[in-house]
Design goal:
By secondary structure, this protein is mainly alpha-helical. It has three domains: 127 residues, Four Helix Bundle (Hemerythrin (Met), subunit A) (Up-down Bundle), CATH 1.20.120; 56 residues; 72 residues, Winged helix-like DNA-binding domain superfamily/Winged helix DNA-binding domain (Arc Repressor Mutant, subunit A, Orthogonal Bundle), CATH 1.10.10.10. It contains 14 helices and no strands.
Length: 287
């Protein structure tokens, strides 16, 4: 058995069986052997030149431990470490697909960009209900500003200017991002059993759409007047037209054109014409 085949077998054995927990996963991937430069080059050429998916699989498996190491650096965002690792694994697979062995760099040096990119996207999507970073400058600030702040205090004017200069952004952008990082999400309508800190509900302070008594009276009078005018207009129609409109537009079970056609022994098109004529008469009276 060749060295590469032996390592593939060891990687397969390391991930065999149920993992049960994230710690078990970390223990398993840490037992997968690390590839030498020569083994890495061989697998990369097999995948790039021959489309060997087994070679790509071995490249991914041998670098899973590095994804765990990178993901641990984002544990301060309050997101599940297992989810961060999962997103990083997606980035690792993208890196393997795009890796060019002839350049001469190691796979881990190339993959770290793709791993971090996927984790960054996940953090930005899930760290807050509302996105805190949408532009390229804001994304750069989001991850760098947290690292540069030595304590929980607000940055001084000089510190803000230094951060803006180092990251090549404006002072206003640094200040705005600091405000976003210091803010917290607030439930618009918290659940009844939520903690006391979340009992404040902005929804309770919104004015009701029908809160104006004068508007309520006006709407009620308008509805009454409209109902009376419509009832008077209906009396101007013949009994058949009135019955067709009532059957088509009122009640829970509305009649179809064919139902009424059978009832009056005419065609469905004739019922449609009678209906259209009756509606036109009602509009003229109500106008």
């Amino acid at each position: 058995m060749t060295t590469t085949a032996l390592m593939a077998r060891q990687a397969e054995l390391a991930l065999t069986g149920p993992l049960g927990s994230f710690d078990a996963y970390v223990d398993r991937v840490s037992r997968i052997p690390i590839l030498t430069r020569e083994e890495e080059q061989e697998l990369a050429h097999r995948f790039r030149d021959d489309g060997d998916l087994e070679a790509a699989r071995q490249l991914v498996l041998s670098h899973l431990r590095f994804v765990v190491h990178i993901a641990r650096g984002y544990s301060g965002y309050g997101l599940p470490l297992g989810d961060l690792v999962q997103e990083g694994n997606v980035g690792l697979m993208k890196a393997v697909k795009r890796f060019e062995p002839s350049v001469g760099v190691r796979m881990v040096s190339f993959a770290v960009h793709w791993i971090r990119a996927e984790i960054h996207e996940y953090v930005l999507r899930n760290w807050r209900l509302v996105k805190v970073a949408t532009t390229k400058a804001q994304r750069k600030l989001f991850f760098n500003l947290r690292k540069r702040k030595k304590n929980l205090a607000w940055l001084s004017h000089d510190e803000t200017a230094a951060v803006a200069r180092d990251l090549n952004v404006s002072v206003a952008e640094v200040t705005e991002m600091e405000k976003r990082l210091s803010a917290r999400d607030l439930s618009f309508d918290p659940a009844p059993d939520a903690s006391e800190e979340e009992n404040y509900s902005p929804g309770n302070y919104l004015p009701a759409l029908d809160a104006d008594p004068a508007e309520q009276v006006e709407n009620a009078q308008w509805e009454d007047a409209t109902s009376e005018r419509l009832a008077s207009a209906m009396k101007t129609l013949d009994s058949r037209s009135r019955d067709i409109l009532m059957s088509r537009w009122s009640g829970e079970e509305k009649s179809t054109l064919h139902d009424l056609a059978d009832k009056y022994q005419v065609s469905a098109e004739r019922i449609r014409q009678i209906e259209a004529t009756a509606i036109g008469k009602l509009r003229a009276v109500l106008a």
